[in-house]
Design goal:
The protein has 8 helices and no strands. By secondary structure, the protein is mostly helical.
Length: 229
């Protein structure tokens, strides 16, 4: 009981700090997946292009960002890009902007593979049927294949959002005030490293568990709607 009382007293004092960090974490993760989806869609289409240089470039992009740790990418963006960006574009040197850049690039590589898998899952016969109706390949992709592919990959995109919530903790290394950064601040202020980090872990767990359950509900509803159709 004394432990619980101590923890509730701890939350009463530092709760707003963790709340602020949680909002930053959610913002990073949400925009990481959102922008990653747009870029990932473009990369997935490039990988299907008949223009070989575009296909090779997209493949290299995916391999590089999937084959290196996100932490390394964030540090490269933070220390590398900040050094080469001209002073006239000083706003781009903001740690948050640089970290978001790295996270969006990383997410887009994974999302592109998710979308590519969704496109490949669409029955080829639908493309052939569209061609027989006189639709061009662009029209077929836009009106027939992509809508079905996006609906198929929505659960996987939700899982990417959940994954980013956990992986985004590394932005604390470059001073972004997310959950982990605030936990470090609280640990330094209280000289009690155990409780601040346990609290951070619990917040991550609650976020991930809640979102996973919501995604499961949404996925079941989508499956039910498809079965009725």
């Amino acid at each position: 009981m004394n432990v619980l009382q101590s923890w509730f007293a701890f939350l009463g004092k530092w709760g707003p700090t963790y709340l602020s960090g949680m909002l930053v974490t959610l913002k990073i993760s949400f925009f990481g997946v959102l922008i990653g989806f747009v870029l990932g869609l473009l990369i997935a289409l490039m990988r299907r292009s008949r223009i070989k240089p575009l296909e090779w470039l997209a493949k290299a992009y995916v391999e590089v960002f999937r084959g290196t740790p996100l932490l390394v990418q964030v540090l490269i963006a933070y220390y590398g890009f900040a050094a080469i960006i001209p002073e006239t574009y000083g706003s781009l040197k903001n740690p948050f902007v640089l970290s978001m850049f790295a996270i969006c690039m990383n997410s887009s590589a994974y999302v592109s593979e998710i979308i590519r898998g969704g496109i490949n899952a669409v029955d080829r016969g639908q493309g052939e049927a569209a061609a027989s109706l006189g639709m061009t390949k662009k029209q077929t992709m836009r009106h027939i294949i992509l809508p079905q592919a996006v609906k198929t990959v929505l659960p996987a995109l939700g899982n990417e959002f959940v994954t980013l919530i956990k992986e985004s903790a590394i932005v604390a290394f470059v001073g972004i005030e997310d959950i982990m950064f605030e936990a470090k601040v609280v640990a330094g202020a209280t000289y009690l490293p155990f409780m601040p980090y346990i609290t951070a872990a619990l917040i991550y767990f609650v976020l991930v568990f809640s979102l996973s359950k919501l995604l499961g509900i949404a996925e079941r509803r989508m499956a039910n709607s498809d079965s009725r159709a």
